Amino acid sequence: MKAMVFCAGKGSWVQLVTFLTLKPMINIINRPILSFILEHLMNEGGNEVVINTSYQSDHIEPYFGDGADQEMKISYSFEGQLVDGALQGIAVGSAGGMKRIRDWADILDDNFVVLCGDAIIDLDIRALVKFHKERDAVVTVASLNVPREEADKYGIIAAGDNGAITSFQVLRSQHAIGGG
Question: How do residues 150-160 score in pLDDT, each as one tens digit?
């Protein structure tokens, strides 16, 4: 299984923490969040990963390298440009990150999944891929039901009777958390 892990955002909703440490590199039990995500992916059959980076990109690649320590192949897609001899991160958003790797034909196949680099999950990825293939879907989105009073922190996915997504609604309140 192949994957892309989004790690290019600034983490503005936790800015006091991310001023010094990138969200995927925040330590939990002496390990970066991203290490838990990569371990879970590997346990689910993941063996090749592209990590997109931008803001504080120099924190991720030196830590994970080529993935040999994680028993997988890791590549990096930097979002930014060279300015006065120094790399400057300019994140292009989730769709932009995917667009940047669209020509990497060897990674984009029927067993390709996309994960957020700052959210530890306990998702049966193999079952999700099986579900996706059984329906011959173009894209499958895994989501989580949350109490209605917490929807403003996450947003709403509207779906038809067949489960097909009909719309996304992003709700932002003063307490909202979200990408970035």
Answer: 877 777 888 88
**Model confidence over 16-75: pLDDT tens digits?**
555 567 888 988 899 999 999 999 999 999 999 999 888 777 789 999 999 988 889 999
Q: Check if the beta carbon of residue 112 is closer than 8 Å to that of residue 104.
A: no
What phi and psi values does residue 81 have, to the nearest 5 degrees?
A: -150, 165
56 and 17 together in one domain: yes
Domain that holds residue 119: 2-142
Question: Do residues 22 and 67 share a domain?
Answer: yes
CATH number (domain holding residue 103): 3.90.550.10
- How many domains, in total, are found in the chain? 2
Total residue count of the chain as it appears in this document:
180
pTM of the model: 0.79
